[in-house]
UniProtKB/TrEMBL annotation:
Transmembrane segments: none annotated. Residues 152-310 form the Phytochrome chromophore attachment site domain. Photoreceptor which exists in two forms that are reversibly interconvertible by light: the R form that absorbs maximally in the red region of the spectrum and the FR form that absorbs maximally in the far-red region. PANTHER family: PAC DOMAIN-CONTAINING PROTEIN (PTHR43304:SF1), PHYTOCHROME-LIKE PROTEIN CPH1 (PTHR43304). Its EC number is 2.7.13.3. This is histidine kinase. GO terms for molecular function: phosphorelay sensor kinase activity; photoreceptor activity. The keyword Coiled coil applies. In the N-terminal section; belongs to the phytochrome family. It comes from Atlanticothrix silvestris CENA357.
Length: 765
């Protein structure tokens, strides 16, 4: 026998997960018959009938059960089979006549397999009487009395193994509990003093592979009375109706897999009895009974142990829930506070991190992060922001569940080894496909005691072309130092995280609805304001034109007849009318900015600049200004708005020129996802304390006598840039000129609008 895990033709996983419920063999202490209903025709039978009741199997095959049993028994069996639940007739005492006048009495157990065949299993009855009810009652009552004397869960488990060993007489009885990772450990043990202890030892998942676990769930009690007994064949090997081996999932006589019997032999076990402990339709653990020599346990006593195990395990489940009740109530209180905090804040994230208790307390974590949009808000000890971004991307690509948790993140996400000191454990809940709440736990180095080296849990044997798994031979204590793991996440913590997820989703949905309503109200209000500004401006034009016309007419008709004061008053009136017309024109331009920016298109910035310079040609000639520019790109923008922007900025530079020759330069530079432009002059400059004020509508830093104007030019510039989803600002010092900067995103406003709609639509996936 040799180990060879490198052979390319060997699939170890398929060997570990090979089906074991389709079998052609049974254990030799009983007889198995496969029957076809309703005639109860014998389709298959075990080959040991001669040894059990002195009849050759060939003489039984293809006959009916009534050819083997007397009419009284057949009538009783058919009556029992008509019931929906076969447990009402199991076990049934059956007697079979041997040669001569001798009878052999059996415990008969019926069940129907998934293929619809009736399976009859016969075990020789040790006694002809069933266990009296009162005897079983006293047995169970004594065990329960013992259990009621302790409140500690470990002591409770120890009483279970003591009572089961007392009832069955096995040399060793263990309570074996499965971990979340599939491995298991012995949490209670009662044994002969001379036997090696297994208490506290861990055993690898491969000791009880997946197919065996499925059978333990389906068939909750399993007896192997003699692990060294040679199995007997089922004749014929394949069922004549289905043409394949019979499904023996619920069989009590099913032969053990050779790998399992070798495992028992390596442990020095001659007989075993296993009772399944099921919780929430999953295999929680096993009560495993071992005997050093062959040992038969009657069907009645096995069922008594099964019932006792179920009663006792219901108490275990209750004790487990009681032990974490206080913690669960504490987490529920924290959860309710977090929901209250989130509801009070405009941003729900503030409600999770600003107060006490906070997000960390909900799961007893050392660090947490709320990754929402493009930003992660962190609390406690967490990975760096860059690592968080990569981790969220990994979760997005690999996790579809409502909750994801692991106490060994580096083993499934190798990059996590860099931050193992803060995040070897991860609990994550998705708020949407790209938004997550994360909790972290640091690495905790542990020493685990194994029953044998878990890395050598099995061998692969290849002899004469046959490949099979062989169990390890050593079960001696083997210590392992476990790294890159954290303390495990408890079920109540995971449940609390899920409940928080529901609350966050509800709050975000509610806030999204509120924002949508506000946006709708704001859009309606803006539309009304624009309409008012436009209508009001047009309505003002007519009376203003009348004032202008009549003042001019007054000046023309009475020219030379008015005194100096009257002429001065007329001049003031004309200037006021002109200023008012300019203000109205600017208000109209301001109100139209975003409505004109609906259709963005590729726009050559140089062309927009040349149009602006053409409009300002006369003022440029009058001032002798020198205007230069860099090579300018093409951007997605409104060409008219871009022209208006340059016209206002250059006109502003011309207006606020100094005594030296005016020089204006327009530049551009490509940044990561936007274009940066600037208009630089050598004019009088601006006091930095007013750098924000100058962009406010109707705000002026000088009197109209010093510098004429309405104070609208830069406000219009700001609105144009905001419509392009860019930014505008100024850098300047008094007497040193000014540089106005503005940005336009690559792709322009249309891309931003599409992204905005996509973001809104994808908040929840």
């Amino acid at each position: 026998m040799g180990i060879d895990l490198q052979l390319p033709d060997i699939n170890v996983t398929s060997l570990k997960e090979a089906p074991i419920h389709f079998f052609r063999q049974i254990q030799p202490h009983g007889v198995l018959l496969v029957l076809e209903e309703p005639e109860l025709k014998i389709l298959q039978i075990s080959s040991n009938t001669w040894n059990i009741f002195g009849i050759n199997p060939e003489n039984v095959l293809h006959k009916k059960l009534e050819d083997l049993l007397d009419p009284f028994q057949i009538e009783r069996i058919k009556t029992g089979l008509s019931e929906d639940n076969l447990e009402f007739i199991n076990p049934t005492k059956i007697w079979v006549r041997k040669k001569g006048d001798d009878y052999v009495v059996f415990d008969a157990v019926f069940h129907r397999n998934a293929e619809g065949f009736l399976i009859l299993e016969l075990e020789p009855a040790i006694s002809r009487e069933n266990i009296p009810f009162l005897s079983f009652y006293h047995l169970a009552r004594a065990s329960i009395n013992q259990l009621e004397k302790t409140s500690n869960l470990r002591d409770f488990c120890q009483i279970i193994v003591q009572e089961v060993r007392k009832v069955t007489g096995f040399d060793r009885v263990m309570l074996y509990k499965f971990d979340d990772d599939g491995h298991g450990s012995v949490i209670a043990e009662e044994k002969l003093a001379s036997m090696e202890p297994y208490l506290g030892l861990h055993y690898p998942e491969s000791d009880i592979p997946k197919p065996a676990r499925k059978l333990f769930v389906s068939n909750s009690i399993r007896l192997i009375p003699d692990s060294y007994a040679e199995p007997v064949q089922i004749l014929p090997a394949n069922n004549p109706v289905s043409d394949r081996p019979v499904d023996l999932t619920n069989s009590i006589l099913r032969s053990a897999a050779s790998c399992h019997t070798e495992y028992l032999h390596n442990m020095g076990v001659g007989a075993s009895l296993t009772i399944s402990l099921i919780k929430d339709q999953k295999l929680w653990g096993l009560i495993a009974c071992h005997h050093q020599s062959p040992k038969y346990v009657s069907y009645e006593l096995r069922k008594a142990c099964e019932f006792l195990g179920r009663v006792i395990f219901s108490e275990i489940s209750a004790r487990e829930e009681t032990e974490d009740y206080d913690y669960r109530m504490s987490l529920t209180h924290i959860q309710s506070l977090l929901v209250e905090y989130m509801s009070q804040e405009e941003n729900f994230i503030d409600g999770l991190v600003k107060y006490q208790p906070n997000l960390l307390n909900l799961t007893s974590a050392q660090g947490a992060a709320v990754c929402f949009g493009d930003h992660c808000t962190v609390i406690g000890e967490t990975p760096k922001e860059e690592d968080l971004n990569y981790l969220v991307q990994w979760l997005k690509n690999n996790v579809d569940e409502e909750v994801f948790y692991t106490d060994s993140l580096p083993q499934i996400y190798p990059d996590a080894e860099r931050f193992k000191n803060v995040a070897s454990g991860l609990l994550a809940i998705p708020i949407s496909r790209r938004n997550y709440v994360l909790w972290f736990r640091p690495e905790v180095i542990q020493t685990v005691n194994w029953g044998g080296d878990p890395h050598k849990a099995f061998e692969v044997s290849q002899t004469e072309g046959n490949v099979r798994l062989c169990p390890r031979k050593s079960f001696e204590l083997w210590k392992e130092t476990v790294r890159l793991t954290s303390l495990p996440w408890q079920a109540v913590e995971i449940k609390a995280a899920l409940e928080l997820r529901k609350a966050i989703v509800n709050i975000v949905l509610r806030q999204a609805d509120e924002l949508a309503q506000l946006a709708q109200d704001l859009e309606r209000s803006n539309a009304e304001l624009k309409k008012f500004a436009y209508v009001a401006s047009h309505d003002l034009q007519e009376p203003l034109n009348q004032v202008a016309n009549y003042v001019q007419l007054l000046e023309m008709r009475y020219q030379g007849e008015l005194d100096e004061d009257a002429n001065e008053f007329i001049t003031y009136a004309v200037e006021g009318v002109s200023l008012m017309q300019t203000l109205i024109d600017d208000v109209l331009v301001y109100s139209k900015v975003d409505t004109q920016a609906i259709a963005f298109q590729p726009t050559q910035v140089e062309t927009a600049l040349e149009r602006a310079l053409s409009n300002l040609r006369q003022r440029i000639l009058e001032t002798g200004a020198t205007i230069t520019h860099d090579a300018l790109p093409t951007v997605m923008a409104g060409s008219t708005q871009l022209m208006q922007l340059f016209q206002n900025l250059i006109a502003n530079a011309i207006k606020f020129r100094s005594d030296q020759p005016l020089q204006i330069h327009v530049g551009a530079e490509r940044l990561e996802d936007e274009w940066l432009f600037w208009v630089r002059d050598n004019g009088i400059g601006i006091d930095p304390q007013f750098s924000d004020r100058i962009f406010v509508i109707f705000q002026r830093l000088h009197t109209r006598d010093e510098y004429p104007g309405t104070g609208m030019g830069l406000a219009i510039c700001k609105k144009i840039i905001e419509c392009h989803r860019g930014r505008i600002w100024v850098e300047s010092q008094l007497g040193e000129g000014a540089t106005f900067y503005f940005t336009i995103p690559v792709g322009g406003r249309e891309r931003e609008r599409r992204n905005g709609r996509k973001t809104q639509n994808n908040i929840f996936g």
